[in-house]
Amino acid sequence: MNTECNPDRIGHYPFVAESFHLDFSGHLLLSVLGNHLLNCSNRHSSDRGFGISLLNEHKYTWVLSRLSIDLSEMPCQNEPFIIDTWVDSIYRLFTDRNYVIRSPQDKVLGYAKSVWAIIDLESRKPIDLLSIDGGRIVEHICKKECPINKPQRIRLSDKKEVVSEFTAAYTDIDMNGHFNSIKYIEHVMNTFSLDFYREKRLKHFEIAYVSECYFGDTIVISREQIDATTYFIEIAKKGEKVLCRCSLLFE
Amino acid sequence: MNTECNPDRIGHYPFVAESFHLDFSGHLLLSVLGNHLLNCSNRHSSDRGFGISLLNEHKYTWVLSRLSIDLSEMPCQNEPFIIDTWVDSIYRLFTDRNYVIRSPQDKVLGYAKSVWAIIDLESRKPIDLLSIDGGRIVEHICKKECPINKPQRIRLSDKKEVVSEFTAAYTDIDMNGHFNSIKYIEHVMNTFSLDFYREKRLKHFEIAYVSECYFGDTIVISREQIDATTYFIEIAKKGEKVLCRCSLLFE
After folding, report:
1. Torsion angles phi and psi, residue B147, rounded to 5
2. Is the ipTM beyond the 0.90 threshold?
């Protein structure tokens, strides 16, 4: 298996930080960047014959399991930026996809890593990635540097506090009928105030998806401050299972 | 003044209905389309020397006053589409910008119209458009067909009912520090259920912005069903002023 970084294994997707995708400080919203990362993942895999639409034809789909984003800088109004993405590794049930977010002059703005599984749309069970199309997905592996923080074990103690509660609404639901992976990020970011963001910059964001929820579910967000700059967040279906856990590191 | 449609007065912006920009039915979210329309407006005006960044240098900014969207079809997963936009007319304090949303094969998917003012960032007062840069904005007017429904007078009676209440959060606020024009659309769309959207398709959406609100404000959405297919919606700062009014026509 050749894992040398053949340049055509890396997808390059240019963007501009559009005026109507910015937060109050004029920086790109993390949720918009998150959507760009996922859309690049789909474009990259679709171009290589294993995108969502193709999997859907076999009653399979991609499911995002984890997403980590390290940011040294967030693009500002009208700034062009490029997302590079490639398949870093394939396990039996998971694949790691890496990203660099960079300026057109190759200044690195951030790194990201996502972990995905393929599931059967009916049984919701994971599929052995190597069983699909004769395991040809391994032909897309590329070893390229992506020095992002290792995923953390995110566990909240009983010091956690409920910071918001809401009902899953129409725009929260994705085309699989589940709560949209990126919408969680938006709800998490909304647990902090503008004054908080005026003083602190998000350096590292991490989300681990645990279970799924649906339209109309009541969702509770709990938060625990771990140290001066770290927050752990847990999103749960009210009185029931945990849906996802996040870690946010500010500076 | 030459208002013939010189082709370079029309901007053409290609998009794809990306997988992570879709609703549960696999169609592009109206809020995503709304953001695309506004971002095209800014790219078109920036390319012609009157974009937001340039106005900001003069302590002015563009403010969206109305937006109407007529949709015969909403793009589905991976479908490419093009937004054409141009300046339709200039009054003293307002300018109308039109849009066609079309397939690459020139099939019209929808039309849109927006009304904008330029305001002084400090006084919040509107600026005479013809006073800027010697009125050169009129050189960009283009007369091209855009057969969209005329704006309606949206007035709710005392039959209106409160359908949601929430607090303006971080991702609701735009880079001017106000509630984001498109985020209102998202909150409006969220007042209907998935079952409702399974049965009805949105044909016409219209929003008229009345006043501004800020982070932390409590916002109340009221709705009134006008006839079998028409809803009027009013968004207000709780116990205070109306912020915007919408009309939605389904089929």
Report:
1. -75, 70
2. yes
- The correct answer on CATH 3.40.120.10 for the domain covering A7-140 is no
Which of B20, B35, B215 has its CB closest to that of A182? B20
pLDDT in tens, B67-79: 999 999 999 998 9
DSSP string, B157-216: -TT-EEEEEEE--GGGB-TTSSB-HHHHHHHHHTTS-HHHHHH--EEEEEEEE-----TT
Return the domain boundaries, chain B: 7-140, 161-250
Task: Specify the residue for token string 């240019």.
Answer: A14
The H-or-E segment that residue A44 falls in is helix A30-47
Predicted TM-score (pTM) of the model is 0.92
CB-based contact (8 Å) between B163 and chain A? no
Name chain B contacts of A35, Cβ cutoff 8 Å. Answer: 18, 20-21
Q: Give me the helix-helix angle, B30-47 and B181-189, nearest 10°.
A: 160
As its CATH architecture, domain B161-250 has Roll (3.10)
**Is the fold of A7-140 the same as that of A161-250?**
yes
Cβ neighbours of B193 in A, within 8 Å = 170, 215-216
| pLDDT (tens digit per residue) in B134-144 | 888 888 899 89
